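R.M. (postdoc): so does anyone remember the format we settled on? I'll just put the structure tokens first.
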């Protein structure tokens, strides 16, 4: 650890290689690939400085259900509906950055949801969340940044999602998205990455 208590991490090129190698492993052997991603996640630390402002997002790997994951991955790879997240560190909250195409489709699936707002010519914000520190759902020995969607403003399905984020280097964050099946039972949906713009 350095003087700030931040675990020394590999250079970004090495880190990105490890992420890409784990992604490739997920395609060849899902269990081993996800295990490699979880090892990387456990190497991360609670963000050393508050995550604030817009971030670019990348879906890393999905593990929804055996027959659902492959078409979901193909859909995400071809449409790239999710662009990242915008954080308000002072307010301990934020929103997702989404493409106009996704927003048009989401209005069909979530007709009562009115939280989409233009963020730029090519993006919208939506599906708000609050943030706080906590222990990992699947990694209770790790301190993570919780990204919690359980708010009355979100559609019921979104309210069951809880993301967790750790920092792997100065500008690379690895996250897990969980879905609440019951009060105490969580299912890992996918891994994602964020980088500050």
């Amino acid at each position: 650890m350095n003087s700030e208590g931040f675990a020394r991490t590999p250079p970004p090129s090495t880190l990105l290689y490890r992420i890409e190698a784990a992604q490739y492993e997920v395609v060849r052997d899902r269990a081993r690939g996800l295990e490699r991603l979880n090892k990387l996640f456990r190497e991360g630390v609670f963000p050393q400085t508050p995550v604030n402002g817009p971030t670019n997002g990348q879906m890393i790997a999905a593990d929804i259900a055996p027959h659902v994951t492959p078409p979901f991955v193909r859909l995400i790879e071809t449409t790239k509906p999710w662009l990242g997240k915008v954080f308000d560190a002072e307010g301990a909250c934020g929103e997702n950055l989404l493409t106009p195409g996704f927003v048009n489709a989401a209005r069909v699936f979530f007709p009562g949801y009115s939280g989409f707002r233009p963020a730029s010519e090519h993006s919208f914000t939506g599906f708000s969340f609050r943030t706080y520190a906590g222990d990992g759902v699947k990694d209770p020995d790790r301190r993570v940044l919780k990204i919690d969607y359980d708010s009355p403003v979100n559609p019921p399905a979104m309210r069951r999602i809880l993301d967790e984020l750790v920092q792997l280097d100065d500008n690379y964050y690895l996250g897990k998205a969980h879905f609440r099946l019951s009060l105490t039972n969580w299912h890992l949906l996918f891994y994602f990455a964020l980088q500050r713009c």
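R.M.: ...and that's the designed sequence above, right after the tokens. Also worth knowing: Strands lie at 53-62, 82-88, 93-98, 117-120, 123-135, 143-148, 161-169, 172-180, 186-196. Helices lie at 12-28, 30-43, 69-79, 100-109, 156-159.
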